[in-house]
Design brief:
- The structure is a homodimer.
- Chain A is an alpha+beta fold.
- In chain A, about 35% of the residues lie in helices and about 25% in strands.
- In chain A, strands 1, 2, 3, 4, 5 and 6 form a 6-stranded mixed sheet that branches.
- Chain A binds a DNA duplex (30 and 30 nucleotides) through α7.
DNA sequence: TTTTAATACGTTTATTTTACGCAATAAATT
DNA sequence: AATTTATTGCGTAAAATAAACGTATTAAAA
């Protein structure tokens, strides 16, 4: 939606294309060099930030909808994306009047008022998805109704609209718990990577430290990674070896789980 | 809904009370004496069985809706109940014509046809919840539109309506994975229970064996259970001691997780 | 050549898990 | 009353895993 005309059409006829009462909210975790951030957006004329989200088209699957919304925001495809919870308990979701006021602030940009009968004024449950991206790869495409974007550190999230703080909390718990069981987030590494790189990835996402030497032993023992003959040049220090994933073990671990057990 | 009149009102005016496009499906696991079963229902005039489910009232939270639906089916309250996934990918959910035919078979009982514009004919996503009950406690209340009920062993589930087989598969995976992390299912035991009782509970739900002696050591080491002075009389064999939960450790384990690690 | 800061590749110790052995006991059987 | 049977209680030894840590190697700069 890039023009006033498109937004007006969405407000008045969106319910023909999208399912009402349901939205998707995306917690997009952005990892880069020892930092884990979340993409937030600020809708027009709002002071509070929100999670990026969208609606489910009537003719697409739920997974397609989530992928499309994620791709719209990041311009990236085939990202790691997982559903984690559906939110329908918060008072801010039940209070239609409050939700309508929030929408009216946003849509004031196109001079339209969401009345009680508008489909956007309905009570809406939200299906939460989380994604993992390298935030240095993301190119934000400005959206008509969004004033600002930012990457905020997971430990420094401000008070957000609706129940979005709770959504982030649940997403982070899910991500961390799943990362202990499955080889998640490996799409954040290049094809060939060094031990310090994958080590930093784990430490950052899980928010704790791992002994370098035990970490290496564990991944090798699980057969998840394979050491290559090549080394990487990294400035003034000893050159670390490059590793690659053993794709068979990797995919088996994704399906059946491979307990890291640190 | 017990009468034709109530059903007709539901078909024609249900969208005023309930959110369209969304349903809740409940996988009700029934445990009893070394058996784990799932409650299935057969809607009027159908050959295939389904999961029990329902809709979300406009003025209740998602959790309230799931609890209400579960209580309606089992006549039991305060059961262990958890959301596990929202389903919106299956072709049987996207194909509105197919879904409408299924509804028409059911509602033929009251001589009404669901037309294309009826709210029940809309595409519907389903939020999956699972519950754990002692099936010997359950008193099924007959419903007007349901011809038959049954408890089927988890290892012997027939082909069900829509994507309900997939929903059960996901529920079972979730239940088992969560049971390794948290003290789940303890509401299936009496206040004071014996080691063989809790041992059988774990073996049955997780579908594998645990060494009796190591199992006891583990639960005691975690501080989850406390041995009492009392013993239980069990016919012709040695009297087992009774145990109770340490409620502090128990609740901490529910929140923070306590890895069983067998 | 020495220094610095990083990686590589161990070894040792502690802890946890797994596999069993065997005595105790309640009631039925001889 | 002793024996048998099926079960529970409690322990120990071995194996596997996790945690802690030592030290040589290496790349480049001082």
């Amino acid at each position: 939606m890039d023009t006033t005309h498109e937004v007006l059409d969405f407000v008045h006829n969106g319910h023909e294309r999208y399912l009402p009462h349901l939205s998707i909210d995306c917690v997009i975790f952005g990892y880069h060099q020892h930092q884990l951030k979340i993409l937030l957006i600020r809708y027009h004329a709002h002071s509070k930030w929100s999670l990026p989200g969208g609606f489910i088209a009537r003719d697409e699957t739920l997974t397609q909808a989530a992928s499309r919304i994620l791709a719209d925001k990041t311009q990236l495809h085939n990202l790691f994306l997982r559903q984690f919870h559906t939110f329908g308990d918060s008072p801010t979701r039940l209070n239609e009047l409050g939700a309508r006021q929030v929408h009216n602030t946003t849509y004031s940009k196109v001079g339209v008022t969401i009345d009680q009968n508008n489909w956007l004024a309905d009570r809406t449950l939200s299906i939460g998805y989380y994604a993992l991206v390298d935030y240095s790869d993301v190119i934000i495409k400005p959206e008509f109704l969004v004033d600002e974007y930012c990457w905020r550190d997971v430990n420094d999230i401000p008070s957000l609209l609706f129940d979005h703080n709770e959504i982030i909390e649940t997403a982070l718990l899910t991500l961390r718990s799943q990362m202990y069981q499955q080889p998640i987030g490996y799409n954040l590494l290049p094809e060939k990577f060094t031990l310090p790189e994958i080590h930093a990835l784990y430490e950052t996402i899980l928010g704790r430290q791992f002994d370098r030497r035990n970490f290496r032993k564990k991944l090798l023992a699980l057969g998840l990674i394979r050491q290559l003959a090549e080394q990487k040049k990294i400035g003034p220090h000893r050159s670390p070896f490059l590793y690659e994933f053993d794709s068979e073990t990797y995919h088996r671990a994704l399906e059946e789980g491979a307990v890291l057990g640190f």
